[in-house]
């Protein structure tokens, strides 16, 4: 359980991505949580990324939901749960079982997921439960089922290290799964692994790429269909394997032959024929190949077909479930896999049992002791919210997610939530964009307080252990759901005493009808984990499934036996249809969206960390120099993104890492921390017809310059009123957490404004003591409340924005007199931007090492400053500092464009 027999260190699992890193945590004397990597955990072997390392900074009692409330009035748990149970029961009685819905999250633990799925599908009798994993991995789920017969990832992380060729497609591994990226990078250094990155953008993962293929958005099927046709043309198909272990090959190949000519692939993808040829040759000549695919493949109107175009190539060559040779879907959330296992998606039943299989339904009904089991799939996420809009769904329970921000067409989603007759939200925070629509608020435990299990991307189950007490009246999600179920009349079936009881029930559920050779058999089984005792559960060590007869195979399907009824893998014939992107004169660019390095989802957790907020602190729109110049957009200025459904404002980042005609924006900003920058406001709700997963990677947009005249910065000990912020003449404001306070940056549309007038519009009526000063065109003020520092502010012309000090130093330094006087006098130097979050290395530290210490490589820079020696996701940026970054591959057309721009 503990390292070096020090019982103060407790093993648990990281709260962020699907890598599922093990952590060890210890409560320090000051109450803060110290976190380090668990060297014994197979997923990360002691490594953590910047977000994992800073988990301790996100532990706070501020901003927590502390008590249940109904219609804004605090109440007891019994009153709140009775209100939920009676309202759901009354709604079902009046409108039917499909009039209620649950929208849940990959942040839930498996035990939470199990109970909520059981209540909805087993006893309410509807399958209207879906999860935010619909936005992440739903296309892979369907692709796996179509090809393998079951939603199974065949390989494991070690395969990245055993492979001779690794293909990253739609996966910026360096930022989204940094620990796996470091394992791959180390493997490349050991034995020269070739790495291909397939991505429209030049991402940080390209730092270790031997070949970058910046294909047109949405053209993946053309590339992989071309690969299948190429392998067939050169007689490189494993025909014996295909004949013995698969079906449907000829149909898949027939469609793929449309791209049997590499020139046709080039025309469809925009890639150079020489690069396509190189990629195809490497795949042909390298049996040990792993293809890693993630959101860039899944989040598409053709996401499922993209997945199957990849799987077709692996099945045709027998490269499935072999050491160092397999397709590999990487999940985005810490328990997206666990939710998929227990049936958290609307179109699955439970424990990999499916709708449409009467024998499985009969087994499950008997197991749950219910006569009301759901008989058909429920509504997927976007369909669910449309059903609320049309009045078919009357009551919605949202758990541990923020759909008001994360779903496409977010303005419409907000209007739908506002119109829903009954909204219940269980969460650990007191405020987010979704909670403002809640009629009932239920305080749930947060990470560090929860106990249960999660499953990572390699099918490895790990324990998440309770590290800290829960503030206020917060409860586990499984307990909240179980208590509602009891009050709805299902007390006997939900009488759990602990999360271990639920885990044991889930283990038994995976055994239902799972005898080898039976028509109800499935790959998922936890048979050997039956009858877990409290001691076993508490000391449970990470292990993969299937767990049967004490043996856990590291890989699946490697023997050619699949989870289909006849045991054969299926080829799926997929056709490439160019995306219907109406690039009219108005919509001249394609918008891509995704994560940035140091933030997570809608920042309700990661945004609490000052360290994680230091690198990318504003929502930036990446745009190519030609497109920026063509629109009069300058780096660091405002840019308005306009689509067919809405518009939002971002800070422009002019960069050649995106291609001409494309742009990119992050997903993380919300109404809570920004006036604009909410990318889902401009993304339509177009979905994949098979998986229901929305398209987040290819939205036609126009981008225009936004003129501002003044910039302002305010640093405050406590949050400012958002209503007042939105009322001032600002085109844009954004906030970020800093040490002991919050920093607000504003861009104003007026040419003149007195600082005192700005503050009068923002602060309370109580008159503070203001200490003001002016320096040239800049106004500065410090506000004191009863002699204590409260906030500081500055207004200056937008042209001087880059030369202003970082006033967050005032609150972080407790407004020491010399700091305050330096700020007021205009002599306070700006803090240097943090480049390496893990080791807190700034731009100034790096430049000093290069200029004064003779540093000439990333390695020597790491030795000198520590930069890049943590999770390594900053290495691509470090390369640029030392001048060794690989030149960006550009087409002759782009070269002409850059020449026209004066580059």
UniProtKB/TrEMBL annotation:
- Highest taxon in the source lineage: Bacteria
Iron-sulfur listed as a keyword: yes
Family note: Belongs to the prokaryotic molybdopterin-containing oxidoreductase family. NasA/NapA/NarB subfamily.
* Keywords of this entry: 4Fe-4S, Iron, Iron-sulfur, Metal-binding, Molybdenum, Nitrate assimilation, Oxidoreductase
The cofactors required by this protein are: Mo-bis(molybdopterin guanine dinucleotide); [4Fe-4S] cluster
Q: Whose protein is this, by species? A: Grimontia kaedaensis
Q: What InterPro entries does the annotation carry?
A: Asp_de-COase-like_dom_sf (IPR009010), BFD-like_2Fe2S-bd_dom (IPR007419), BFD-like_2Fe2S-bd_dom_sf (IPR041854), CT_Nitrate-R-NapA-like (IPR041957), MoPterin_dinucl-bd_dom (IPR006657), Mopterin_OxRdtase (IPR006656), Mopterin_OxRdtase_4Fe-4S_dom (IPR006963), MopterinOxRdtase_cofactor_BS (IPR027467)
| Protein name per Swiss-Prot or TrEMBL | Nitrate reductase
Q: Where is the 4Fe-4S Mo/W bis-MGD-type domain?
A: 7-63
């Amino acid at each position: 359980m503990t390292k070096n027999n020090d019982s103060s260190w407790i093993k648990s699992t990281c709260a962020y991505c699907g890598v599922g890193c093990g952590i060890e945590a210890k409560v320090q004397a000051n109450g803060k949580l110290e976190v380090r990597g668990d060297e014994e955990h197979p997923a990360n072997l002691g490594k953590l990324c910047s977000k994992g390392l800073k988990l301790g900074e996100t532990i706070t009692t501020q901003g927590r939901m502390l008590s249940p409330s109904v219609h804004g009035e605090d109440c007891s748990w019994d009153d709140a749960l009775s209100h939920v149970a009676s309202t759901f029961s009354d709604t079902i009685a009046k409108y039917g079982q499909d009039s209620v819905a649950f929208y849940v999250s990959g942040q839930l633990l498996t035990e939470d997921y199990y109970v909520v799925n059981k209540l909805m599908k087993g006893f309410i009798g509807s399958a209207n439960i879906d999860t935010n994993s619909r936005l992440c991995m739903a296309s892979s789920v369907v692709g796996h089922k179509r090809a393998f017969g079951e939603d199974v990832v065949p390989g494991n992380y070690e395969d990245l290290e055993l492979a001779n060729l690794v293909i990253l497609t739609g996966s910026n591994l360096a930022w989204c799964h940094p620990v796996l990226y470091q394992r791959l990078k180390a493997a490349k250094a050991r034995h020269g692994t070739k790495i291909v990155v397939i991505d429209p953008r030049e991402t940080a993962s390209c730092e270790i790429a031997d070949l970058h293929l910046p294909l047109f958005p949405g053209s993946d099927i053309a590339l992989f269909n071309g690969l299948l046709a190429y392998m067939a043309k050169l007689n490189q198909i494993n025909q014996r394997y295909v004949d013995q272990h698969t079906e449907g090959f000829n149909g898949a190949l027939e469609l793929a032959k449309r791209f049997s000519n590499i020139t046709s692939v080039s025309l469809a993808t925009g890639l150079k024929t020489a690069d396509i040829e190189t990629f195809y040759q490497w795949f042909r000549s390298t049996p040990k190949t792993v293809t890693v695919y993630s959101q860039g493949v899944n989040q598409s109107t053709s996401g499922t077909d993209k997945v199957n175009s990849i799987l077709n190539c692996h099945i045709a060559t027998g490269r499935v479930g072999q050491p160092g040779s397999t397709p590999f879907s990487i999940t985005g959330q810490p328990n997206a896999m666990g939710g998929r296992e227990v049936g958290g998606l609307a179109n699955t039943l439970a424990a990999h049992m499916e709708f449409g299989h009467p024998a499985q339904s009969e087994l499950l009904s008997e197991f749950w002791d219910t006569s009301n089991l759901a008989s058909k799939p429920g509504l997927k996420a976007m369909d669910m919210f449309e059903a609320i809009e049309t009045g078919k769904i009357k009551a919605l329970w949202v758990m541990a997610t923020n759909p008001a921000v994360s779903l496409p067409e977010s303005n419409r989603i907000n209007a739908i939530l506002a119109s829903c007759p009954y909204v219940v939200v269980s969460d650990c925070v007191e405020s987010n964009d979704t909670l403002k629509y809640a009629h009932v608020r239920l305080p749930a435990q947060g990470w560090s307080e929860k106990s249960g299990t999660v499953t990572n991307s390699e099918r490895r189950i790990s324990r998440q252990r309770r590290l800290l007490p829960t503030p206020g009246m917060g409860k586990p999600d499984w307990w909240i759901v179980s208590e509602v179920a009891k009050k709805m009349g299902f007390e006997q079936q939900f009488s759990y005493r602990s999360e271990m009881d639920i885990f044991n029930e889930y283990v038994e559920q995976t055994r239902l009808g799972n005898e080898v050779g039976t028509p109800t058999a499935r790959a998922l089984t936890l048979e050997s984990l039956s009858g877990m005792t409290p001691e076993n559960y508490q000391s449970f060590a990470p292990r993969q499934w299937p767990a049967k007869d004490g043996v856990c195979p590291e890989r699946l399907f490697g023997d050619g036996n699949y989870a289909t009824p006849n045991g054969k893998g299926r080829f799926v014939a997929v056709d490439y249809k160019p995306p219907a992107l109406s690039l009219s004169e108005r919509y001249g660019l394609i918008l891509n969206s995704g994560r940035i390095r140091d933030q997570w989802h809608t920042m309700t957790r990661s945004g609490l960390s000052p360290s994680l907020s230091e690198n990318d602190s504003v929502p930036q729109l990446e745009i190519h120099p030609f497109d920026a110049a063509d629109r009069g957009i300058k780096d660091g200025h405002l840019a308005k993104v306009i689509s067919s459904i809405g518009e939002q404002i971002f800070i422009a980042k002019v960069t050649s890492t995106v291609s001409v005609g494309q742009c990119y924006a992050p997903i993380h900003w919300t109404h809570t921390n920004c006036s604009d920058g909410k990318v889902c406001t401009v993304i339509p709700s177009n979905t994949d017809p098979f998986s229901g997963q929305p398209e987040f990677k290819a939205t036609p947009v126009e981008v225009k310059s936004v003129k501002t005249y003044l910039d302002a910065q305010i640093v405050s000990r406590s949050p400012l009123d958002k209503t007042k912020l939105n009322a001032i003449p600002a085109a844009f404001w954004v906030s970020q957490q800093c040490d002991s306070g919050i920093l607000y940056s504003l861009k104003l549309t007026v040419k003149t404004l007195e600082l005192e007038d700005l503050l009068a519009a923002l602060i309370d009526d109580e008159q503070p003591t203001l200490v003001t000063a002016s320096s040239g065109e800049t106004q500065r003020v410090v506000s004191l409340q009863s002699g204590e520092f409260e906030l500081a502010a500055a207004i200056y012309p937008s042209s001087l924005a880059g030369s202003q000090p970082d006033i967050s130093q005032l609150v972080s330094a407790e407004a020491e007199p010399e700091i305050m006087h330096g700020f007021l006098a205009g002599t306070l130097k700006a803090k240097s931007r943090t480049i390496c979050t893990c080791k807190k290395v700034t731009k100034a530290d790096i430049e000093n090492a290069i200029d004064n210490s003779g540093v000439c490589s990333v390695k020597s820079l790491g030795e000198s400053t520590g930069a890049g020696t943590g999770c390594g996701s900053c290495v691509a940026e470090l390369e640029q500092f030392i001048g060794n970054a690989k030149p960006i591959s550009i087409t002759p057309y782009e070269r002409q464009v850059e020449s026209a721009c004066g580059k």
